[in-house]
Amino acid sequence: MNLFKRTPIAPLDYTRRLWMRAWMGGTLFFLYAPLIVLIAFSFNDSRRNIVWRGFTLKYYGKVLENDALMAALGNSLTIAFLATLFSILLGTLAAVMLWRFEFPGKAGVEGTMSLPIVVPEICMGVAMLVFFAKLDWPTDLPWPLNLSAITIAHITFCFPFVAMVVRARLASFNKEQEEAAKDLGASEWQAFRDVLLPHMKPGIVAGALLAFTLSLDDFVITFFTSGPNTITFPVKVYSMVRFSVTPEVNAASALLIFLTILLTSVALKLQDFTKATA
Amino acid sequence: MSDKPPVISIRNVTKRFGNMVAVDNVSIDILEGEFFVLLGPSGCGKTTLLRMVAGFELPTEGQILIGGQDMAGVPPNQRPINMVFQSYAVFPHMSVADNVAYGLKIAGVERSELRTRVDEALELVSLGGLGARMPDQLSGGQRQRVALARGLVMRPKVLLLDEPLSALDAKLRAQMQFELAELQDNVGITFVTVTHDQDEALSMACRIAVMNKGDVAQLAAPSDLYEYPANRFVADFIGSVNIFEGKLSVDEPERAVVDCPELGQVYLNHGVTGAHETTVWVAIRPEKITMLPVGQAKAKDSPEGSNVAHGQIKGMSYLGDITIYDIRLDSGRSIRVSRPNLSRWDQDEFQWDDKVSLCWHPSSPVVLLS
Questions:
Q1: Which of A98, A221, B258, B308 is an S-S bond match for B246, by CB 3.0 to 4.6 Å?
Q2: Which residues of B touch A179 (CB under 8 A)?
Q3: Higher model confidence: residue B272 or residue A130?
């Protein structure tokens, strides 16, 4: 095995030096130990989360039977779906605009568009709260409409991510391809549909997954914009923790982690694909 | 050929980008069925001119007619021409057959006709049977053939090619030069090609427009460009040449003499239409100069007539088929002479620092007035 090779360590062979390995191990430990503990104790057969009492799946069953929690999950998924849809539209169009056109104030538009990414979430949350209060946004609408405030808030911080990913993808586009399409008789729209859109697709899909996961596990901004009837999954988990940290909370969190990991890895895979075909 | 109407008529076309004049009042008629080449160094405006014909740039002034119709206000997708782009611009997400079929689909060509035409076009560029491949499974040369087929399948009046061979390696480029010329001959479509490579232009073209700084320096057939360049730019750009400045001292219908301070008197067996004592330039191609060991020239009494110069070999580069000699003349100027290696020992006849005599026929030098 490579790790125990007896050949001398080359000057740039940092990964074979002891101090480097210790450092890496420490980093990985602090990163992942809490998550591993969380997931491990979601299988703990005990009301209290302190002592290991044996393996069980019953808290996963309990989570799935918890109607309030499932309603919150439904809300979260609905919000994430809608926010993703609008983020794709807005983000893609913004990316195409910034890529294709030169106009006065372009630098300003580019800067302000990434503002939702850099502004602290707590500020965004407070800003959204004040904004919707000032507008007197109705809170007593029937079900999907009562999620509108949260959805709008989520679109605000999700679409710049889509725009960034799509813009990066567009940088590798060969404009001669679009000209070739037009040269062969395609109209502006046909050239967009047949040449530009297929090129952007991996970027759009990656951006969409990014937007979906961001929206799904957002807590801070959602906390400020949600009402008593519009609890989302992360907010619900938070309220459960305030009473006691039971394995049920662990199980719920673990589920969210699995969902996020799944979506993120799909997004990363697609970005690899993006690079490979650029 | 001259009785056919021009298929493309470029009339007094000027293109400015801000203060920069890219194309300066150019007028060219391109005839039906010819292989026309726009040749020039980078930045001479040749690509801009081509893109104006394709419709991707609009002329600032002037008119472009295709098949007798004014193209002002006609967008690229409605012009009866197609273009092969420098990057080939093959659509990476479509198969070879779908690439070639794209224009026909947009035009709404019926499915059965579409299939036969696509197959024909692929056959024409020797890509038969590769229709199902994706572009990333093709070599650079094959991708270029796809781009060619994609244009040819539309049966355009004119096919425009922007630096079609620049992305290929040297061997493939030489092969494609022949193939392109043959293909053009077969399909009978007018080809207009842009290139900066003179070999490419000379080998493929019926006529060449040499461009310099937005202007057409000369428009002629390849051999005329080489043997009868109109000015110093063309003489220097096409092939290699020795240019000497001089004054016209004798100018008769059958005879002329140019006094070149760096070369001596150059005798010509034809007249030059220029005033006495005007400054002219004499251009002599390296292969039209005969080199002899210094003693022999006198013994043979200069077989090339009265044009003789003397010098010393200061550089040699052996290229296999020819050897190029750099000779320092008695005046101190260098002159380049090339000599074919007809036998296997020819390159050994001259060595560094040998004193040599150079002679050339009075018909060989070209007198340039600008």
A1: B258
A2: 56, 76, 83, 85, 89
A3: A130
